[in-house]
Amino acid sequence: MKTTTETQKQEAPKGPPKGPLADITVLELGVLIAGPFCGQLLGDFGAEVIKIEEPRTGDPMRNWGQVRPDGHSVHWATISRNKKSVGLNLRTEEGQQILKDLVRQADVVLENFKPGTMEKWGLGYDVLSKINPGIIMTRVSGYGQTGPYASKAGYASVGEAMGGIRYVIGEPDRLPSRAGISLGDSLAGTFATLGTLTALHHRHATGRGQVVDASIFESVFAMMESLIPEYQFAGHVRERTGSYLPGVAPSNIYTCRDGMIIIAANQDAIFGRLAEAMDQPELVSNERYASHVARGTNQAELDAIINAWTGALTAAEVQAKCDAQSVACSPIYRAPEILEDEHFKAREAIISRLHPKLGEFMMQNTFPKLSETPGDVTSMAPKLGEHTEEVLKAKLGKSAKDIHLLRSAKII
Fold first, then answer.
1. 367 in the same domain as 269
2. What pLDDT score does 72 carry?
């Protein structure tokens, strides 16, 4: 049972956001994950994020996810925190004009529709930049705004496939696996955020806006390390290798009496400390394991030796021995372990807020951490159209009569 004081601590801070981006207004037009994740990151650091939604149905993410207590998507509650919801039918001329009027006072237009959709609605950058030369248009899509594939349907899974990451995930004797998250979408949203902040910095110096073109496939491709020069110079194609990287040893998952643990000790000095932790210092002088290259060449047999050692111990015992020798290792966490871990607690990596329907709601804190201007979660995800009247009155000076007429015409 929580005390009143404890419950009050969970409530989102009152008043306008005070983060480092508090002077930035973002019009978020995207749906699902890739674009809205960018909006979440910007909102986490204080930007006013006005989410424009189809007024009758809203963002499909409102109903997505495996967990929907009482019909409320917990994924939606996370990705739409720190946002306002405005219902606006962009398929009508009146709705398009309202968006144009909002653009006059905005800094960023964020969208992740199929390329060409905004132009079809008369809302392309050529139009919006004439209304507001400083506007930054952040566009997230599967394949980008240009090129022969631009108009193709693109989602995270196909972007991950084209970007190269799907092929290298999984066991070598099976079909490629996927991560248990929408990795491509989140990467695209992250790179879109980076591009938006970079464009804002450029505008601060020049007064000019620009287009940020963030594709899912290129966001994935950007993470693929030396994939291309490896092929260029040696014809080498990375293959699926399961739980380890070829030539990097020891760095793998090892079984304990009560579970699994990852140990990463491939650097020479760290391997020496692991040998001490195992009470097998002779491994260091064995020519089969004495260098990085030797350990990589004899990776399987070295992993077998380490696995024999961990298999006789509990995960906690292995962790303690590795910690004592400053060897990097960790159990493989799931949500229960994350919630119990003292480091997550000390870092305040998880926050608790009061959801209007679900009560206490736990989720990731804002990140990265800033020493002077940290991010915060100041509001939970909005109801569909919750802020329509507020925004149209404050931003555009609409009267109650204006708003009534717009609702009657199904514009908002």
1. no
2. 87
The CATH number assigned to the domain holding 268 equals 3.30.1540.10
d(CA 206, CA 202): 6
Other C-beta atoms closer than 10 Å to the C-beta of 270 total 19
User: pLDDT for 280-299, tens place per residue?
Assistant: 999 999 999 999 999 999 99
What per-residue confidence (pLDDT) applies to 1? 31
Query: Residue 369's pLDDT is what?
Result: 95
245 in a structural domain: no
Q: Please give the positions annotated as active site.
A: 185
pTM: 0.91
237 phi-psi bin (left φ>0, alpha ψ -120 to 50, beta other):
beta
In a domain, residue 366? The reply is: yes
Residue type, 285: S
Please provide the distance, in angstroms rounded to a whole number, between the alpha carbons at the two ends of the chain: 42
Q: Are residues 138 and 31 in the same domain?
A: yes
Q: 284, 303, 332 — which closes off a domain? A: 332
Both structure tokens of 173: 């004797």
φ/ψ region of 19 (left if φ > 0, alpha if ψ in -120 to 50, else beta) reads beta
- 129 plus 208 within the same structural domain: yes
The predicted-structure confidence for 162-185, as pLDDT tens digits, reads as follows 999 999 999 999 999 999 999 999
Task: Judge whether 340 and 359 are in contact, CB under 8 Å.
Answer: no
Alpha-carbon distance of 156 to 178, in angstroms, equals: 11
**Looking at the 3D structure of the chain, how many domains does it have?**
2
Q: Are 217 and 223 in contact (CB under 8 A)?
A: no
Question: Taking 50 as the threshold, does the pLDDT of residue 5 lie above it?
Answer: no
Residues 298 and 376 placed together within one structural domain of the fold? no
Contact call for residues 54 and 121 (beta carbons, < 8 A): no
Determine contact, residues 373/45, Cβ cutoff 8 Å: yes
Residue 161 CA to residue 153 CA, distance in Å, equals: 14
> Are 83 and 60 contacting, i.e. CB atoms less than 8 angstroms apart?
no
Tell me the angle at which helices 183-206 and 156-163 cross, rounded to the nearest 10 degrees: 80
State how far the Cα of 227 lies from the Cα of 289, in Å rounded to an integer.
Answer: 27
**DSSP 3-state of 27:** strand
Domain range enclosing 311:
251-332
Residue 243 is assigned to a structural domain of this protein: no
For residues 304 and 354, state if they share a domain: no
Encoded tokens for 358: 């679900």
Q: CATH number of the domain at 82, please.
A: 3.40.50.10540
Locate 181 and state its tokens.
């998250």
